[in-house]
Known about the structure:
The structure holds three protein chains of three kinds.
Chain A (H helix, E strand, L loop, with lengths): L1 H26 L12 H4 L10 H21 L4 E5 L2 E4 L2 H8 L3 H11 L6 H4 L9
Antiparallel strand pairs in A: 1-2
Chain B lengths: L9 H27 L14 H14 L2 H9 L9 H22 L8 H4 L6 H28 L8 H24 L12 H27 L6 H32 L2 H11 L9 H19 L1 H5 L1 H28 L14 H33 L1
Chain C lengths: L1 H13 L2 H5 L2 H6 L14 H4 L3 E6 L6 H14 L15 E5 H4 L10 H5 L1 E5 L7 H5 L5 E3 L5 E3 L9 H5 L6 E2 L23 E2 L5 H5 L5 H5 L4 E5 L6 H8 L2 E2 L11 E4 L4
Parallel strand pairs in C: 1-10
Antiparallel strand pairs in C: 1-8, 2-3, 4-5, 6-7, 9-10
Amino acid sequence: MSDKNKIIYVLVVFIVIVSFPFIYNKVKTPTDVNVKLNTPVIDNMTVKQCILPKEQMRHEHMKILNSWRDDVVRGNHREFGKIDGVMYEKSLQLTCLHCHSNKSEFCDRCHTYASVSVYCWDCHVAQKENKL
Amino acid sequence: MIEKALSGSKYYWAWICFLLAVILVGVACYIRQYHYGLGLTGMSRDVSWGFYIAQFTFFVGVAASAVMVVLPYYLHDFKRFGRITILGEFLAIPSVIMCMLFIFVDMGQPTRILNVILHPTPNSVMFWDMIVLSGYLMLNIVVGWVSLSAHYKLVHPPKWIKPLVFLSIPWAFSIHTVTAFLYAGLPARHFWLSAIMAVRFLSSAFASGPALLVLLCLLIKKITKFDPGDRAIKGLVTIVTYALIVSIFFVGLELFTAFYSHIPGHMQSFKYLYFGLESHGKLIPLMWFSTLLAITAVFMLLIPATRTNQVTLVIACIFVHVSLWIDKGFGFVIGGFVPNPLEKITEYWPTLNELLVTAGIWSIGLLILTALYRIAIVVKVELEA
Amino acid sequence: MSIDRRQFLKAAGATGLLGLLGSPLFKVLAPGELEASPELKEGMAKSAKRWAMVVDMKAFPTEESYNKCIEACNKTHNIPQMESEKHEIKWIWAEKYENAFPDSYNGYLTESIEKMKFLVLCNNCDNPPCVRVCPTKATFKREDGLVVMDYHRCIGCRFCMAACPYGARSFNWRDPRPFIKNINPSYPTRTKGVVEKCNFCADRLYRGELPACVEASNGALIFGDLKDENSNVRKTLRSKFTITRKPDLGTFPGVYYVIGGS
């Protein structure tokens, strides 16, 4: 049965190829992302806080942005709510980027690191950095 | 059974390699288009659908025409189509797949294609087109494959296949009707806004599809050991003849309504296609060529001498297919966009990149057709031997 | 809402952002601009039932006067100026009478109308064919009568372009960004592969502002709630004879034209 060896050989190659990304990520020590998150706007804030707790933003920002976009575009509900008497609008471009004007640090560093490609910027404009 | 497609003569493999090469070119051209955008085609703000959608429309017809062998055989016990029903069903499969691919390459945002399912919209004809096309594909795959493998195993096909066969008959009509509704319900597109669009589509489909099937049968007879049977081919030719005549008649009806009513909107697209409008007339030679072919074919198919002679029959069938391909696979879609709703004229002509993507899709269709026909023929020949 | 908005801006201004950017965003949102919109009262953005526009042709004496409106729109919405006419993106543009109203053209017009260019844009129809055909609800009609697009959802099938009787829709045949001279940072651009059109400035209305073209029109474009008997739109429709484009199609356009002429 020469076929038996062939099958085992191909099977091993197959398993190695399929599991390679997982093994690679396990073996590789993560490099330090080292992002500088502060911007002039954030530096000037007396209380440094986002519209939601940091942890929640970190984990759920994509879901939040997704639900915002449906709320705004499809429902015309644009108000996020007031924080300390200031009304915040559900807007990536107008609200998020107001404070986080450093898109290349704030968004791109992590996304590049995690190999996540988002198409937000195909349309939305990162104001300051685009030299507008 | 599928292994039958993996063996063959060196000509068979040369043909497969040729198709694969064209597919590769098509894929490369599609990748170009994907990155640049649909601006790489000849389409424009005014002619916003072009060759891709026209090809889609044409091949929906070829797919639907399988019913022309299935219906007589199953409903009227028309025995002589028994040997070719499988060929009809196996022609429908690559046709529907080509339709889907043509829609896909025409999309501006192909990665979002699932939005059609994620956000189902029953008021859109396109939603229904997706349903009928995928349903028709499944029906033909299941019916064709199950009956052929039963045949192969020398057993009767399972009982549950009969209801599916009967379902596939109205379903075939539905795919081309819904495709006609894509066009026939749009205000201000006078050329398309016609209640007979669905029957016009069906009649031209029942001419072009079976004409292709006749050609395929004759080719199979020549290059394989399988003989579809002269009587089956004769039956097909009769269908082609009358479907073609009806199809031409329907065009005549459209012309009468447009030109006797003399309503400018109704006449303009016809004028553009056949005579040119304000010195724009890129499609004139093609449209007259198509007309000439159709009329010649009618005579060739009606006259017994030319109908029974194999050489002239082949020519007539090529004429029918090419004529209707030009008419529906090009002129019909472009004509609807000229002039635009503001009565301005922008002309369309496909670009090389667009044509190569199209050639790639044809080749995918031909590859699937070749493999399926190979399987069917080998099975049939083995059983007969 | 606009009060909150102002507070928000004050807060933003305090951070020095306003001076830093000096962008159109803050110019249009600056206090004073809001008061300059007599048609829009506080809260109206949400209570309006059917937004509509009247184009008063008599108030467009020169080419310059309507070009201002077009430019305002182009700037506000980041409309690219494509190289090829085939790939043009147009939200609002000017057409001759015979093209804007082809089915009521009899071949003989007064000299003034012959010369006139009519601003055409999406009619935000009551019964929009584009909404009917869209397979993903990317184009939909809002309760206030606006026909708007969700660019995130558009698959680029262009069925809406075939369906629109007014040629109001444009497709991004290629990436539009390189063709926008000065990007307005307060508004997104579009991406290749989606359809776009005028949306009566849905987001400006929300902020209590008139559409950009109306603001730039010097009174020639009248905008308001068609369901409000006292709106400027209704007042105009009561006092002047108006026409719409292709009324026989039953789309019920939301853009009316006072032809006038002298």
